[in-house]
């Protein structure tokens, strides 16, 4: 095992938390599995809390993009759980379809901004953020229209998004462990430039 504290990077943990939570939720959206506590528990702890902590650590790394992404999507998972829990606890009424659609479309707007920022990173970063933007748009349309088929379509598209984040995390974990790229992520290269070896994480300050 290789242990080098200088190379420790919280983005890999945040990506895995995002990816696994997204896959589980969209297995439900695609009507492959029913909603269950495994989805909400993973979303709250791994998608929410762990991602948020990764974002705080990215602040210490002076990585504005990583901090914003992980803290924001960590907060999204926590807020999504609260949307479900608050009406069941009798503290707030459930959101109307229009309000839920607006909530999801605002997240689509934020994600579209992040997707533009990902153009400075690898092709796999772009797949994650652009597919996530489309996922929020589809889920917002499903909420407003009330058409279950849109949820199913969003579910399968969300599986692509979640697995792409897991793949990206795996590529960065293995690259850090072995000291060279193992899984390709499509880093842009200019003439005569050698591939990145160590830091395969988007770092925009």
TrEMBL record:
<keyword id="KW-0812">Transmembrane</keyword>
<protein>
    <submittedName>
        <fullName>Acetate transporter</fullName>
    </submittedName>
</protein>
<comment type="similarity">
    <text>Belongs to the acetate uptake transporter (AceTr) (TC 2.A.96) family.</text>
</comment>
<dbReference type="InterPro" id="IPR000791">
    <property type="entry name" value="Gpr1/Fun34/SatP-like"/>
</dbReference>
<feature type="transmembrane region" description="Helical">
    <location>
        <begin position="98"/>
        <end position="120"/>
    </location>
</feature>
<dbReference type="GO" id="GO:0015360">
    <property type="term" value="F:acetate:proton symporter activity"/>
</dbReference>
<keyword id="KW-0472">Membrane</keyword>
<dbReference type="Pfam" id="PF01184">
    <property type="entry name" value="Gpr1_Fun34_YaaH"/>
</dbReference>
<keyword id="KW-1133">Transmembrane helix</keyword>
<feature type="transmembrane region" description="Helical">
    <location>
        <begin position="32"/>
        <end position="53"/>
    </location>
</feature>
<dbReference type="GO" id="GO:0071422">
    <property type="term" value="P:succinate transmembrane transport"/>
</dbReference>
<dbReference type="InterPro" id="IPR047623">
    <property type="entry name" value="SatP"/>
</dbReference>
<feature type="transmembrane region" description="Helical">
    <location>
        <begin position="127"/>
        <end position="146"/>
    </location>
</feature>
<dbReference type="GO" id="GO:0005886">
    <property type="term" value="C:plasma membrane"/>
</dbReference>
<feature type="transmembrane region" description="Helical">
    <location>
        <begin position="65"/>
        <end position="86"/>
    </location>
</feature>
């Amino acid at each position: 095992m290789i242990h080098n504290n200088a190379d420790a990077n919280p983005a890999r943990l945040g990506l895995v938390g995002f990816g696994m939570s997204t896959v589980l939720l969209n297995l439900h959206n695609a009507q492959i599995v029913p909603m269950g506590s495994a989805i909400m528990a993973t979303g709250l702890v791994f998608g929410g809390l762990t991602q948020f902590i990764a974002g705080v650590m990215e602040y210490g790394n002076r990585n504005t993009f990583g901090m914003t992404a992980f803290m924001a999507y960590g907060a999204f998972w926590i807020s999504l759980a609260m949307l479900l829990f608050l009406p069941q606890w009798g503290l707030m009424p459930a959101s109307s379809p229009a309000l839920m659609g607006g909530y999801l479309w605002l997240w689509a707007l934020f994600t579209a901004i992040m997707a533009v920022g990902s153009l400075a990173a690898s092709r796999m970063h772009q797949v994650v953020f652009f597919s996530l933007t489309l996922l929020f748009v589809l889920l917002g349309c499903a909420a407003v229209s009330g058409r279950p088929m849109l949820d199913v379509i969003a579910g399968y598209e969300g599986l692509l998004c979640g697995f792409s984040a897991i793949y990206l995390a795996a590529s960065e974990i293995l690259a850090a462990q072995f000291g060279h790229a193992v899984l390709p992520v499509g880093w842009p290269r200019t003439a005569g430039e050698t591939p990145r070896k160590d830091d395969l994480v988007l770092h925009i300050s």
